[in-house]
Amino acid sequence: MASPAPDGPFVVVGLGNPGPGYAGNRHNVGAMVLAELARRAGVKLAAGKGARARALAGEGRLAGRRVVLAQPLTYMNESGSPVRGLLDYHKLPPEQLVVVHDELDIPFASVRLKRGGGEGGHNGLRSITRSTGTKEYLRVRVGIGRPPGRQEPADYVLKDFSATERKELDLLLVEAADATELLLTAGLEAAQNQVHPRG
């Protein structure tokens, strides 16, 4: 599916770990972008019932498209189950799923868009792929860069952004939210052509 459906809805998921202790971690940048999207759409996120009880979610319009904005309430490595629950509840295929997540293989403050591909060791993506049975969902990859020196990636992603990074973080969240909106309105290829040249 090269371009979005005429009106959606799309399920847009921002990945992170629950609780205030993780809120500022690099691993939670997807959830931070989702909060910005919810603000733009005027959507209040709340826990649902049944299959939707394991995510904070809300429905509205974003850039003119119908969306379900959601953040799993599970830990990152169990993100797939609530995502699957939302897709099933709204009777949507994984092709209409957009996952916003942190990406080690992209420099800090860069944003990339793609559909499918590997998970690059990302436990949230791995869980979603396992639960949906496919890798062919859309991804908004928010660059956090590689850890310095010999720091383990697993430790690095669970640390808060550095003071230097925090100066650019607000702009990064805006750019990632803009890229998500563009993905929904223009389709993947056109959005890539606009977003990727920025670096």
TrEMBL record:
Domain of life: Bacteria
Pfam families in the record: Pept_tRNA_hydro
Swiss-Prot/TrEMBL keywords: Cytoplasm, Hydrolase, RNA-binding, tRNA-binding
PROSITE patterns: PEPT_TRNA_HYDROL_2 (PS01196)
A single BP term in Gene Ontology: protein quality control for misfolded or incompletely synthesized proteins
InterPro entries: Pept_tRNA_hydro, Pept_tRNA_hydro_CS, Pept_tRNA_hydro_sf
Gene3D superfamilies recorded: Peptidyl-tRNA hydrolase (3.40.50.1470)
Residues annotated as the enzyme's active site: H27
GO terms for cellular component: cytoplasm
Main localization category: cytoplasm
GO MF, any single term: peptidyl-tRNA hydrolase activity
Positions annotated to bind tRNA: Y22, Y75, N77, N123
Residue stretches in coiled coil: none
EC number: 3.1.1.29
Localization: Cytoplasm
Site description Stabilizes the basic form of H active site to accept a proton, residues in chain: D102
Catalytic activity: an N-acyl-L-alpha-aminoacyl-tRNA + H2O = an N-acyl-L-amino acid + a tRNA + H(+)
SUPFAM superfamilies linked: Peptidyl-tRNA hydrolase-like
Keyword Ligase: no
Alphabetized HAMAP family for the sequence: Pept_tRNA_hydro_bact
Subunit record text: Monomer.
PANTHER family recorded: PEPTIDYL-TRNA HYDROLASE
Similarity-based family: Belongs to the PTH family.
Protein name in the entry: Peptidyl-tRNA hydrolase
Organism of provenance: Blastococcus saxobsidens
Taxonomy of the source species: Bacteria, Bacillati, Actinomycetota, Actinomycetes, Geodermatophilales
